[in-house]
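Query structure, 82 tokens:
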């Protein structure tokens, strides 16, 4: 993927991700429970890589591809209909 994050910021309800192609996307913090529960200082300690956003302290990894596809937290187990 050639699109990367250049900056990440937050307001009370949204994570804002600035991308190398000039777009800024906003996603609800509710999509990512670890970020929702994190302190503002913890959220600010994001590490940007070519393909991902990473927060070591809260053990959160978010892919840019996932954000662009509209995916939230994928660590939740989906219960199958029996």
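Result returned for the query:
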């Amino acid at each position: 993927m050639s699109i990367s994050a250049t900056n990440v910021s937050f307001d009370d309800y949204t994570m804002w991700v600035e991308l190398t192609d000039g777009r800024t996307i906003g996603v609800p913090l509710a999509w990512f429970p670890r970020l929702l529960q994190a302190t503002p200082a913890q959220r600010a300690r994001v590490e940007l890589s070519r393909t991902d956003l990473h927060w070591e302290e809260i053990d959160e990894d978010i892919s840019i591809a996932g954000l662009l596809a509209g995916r939230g937290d994928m660590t939740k187990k989906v219960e199958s209909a029996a």
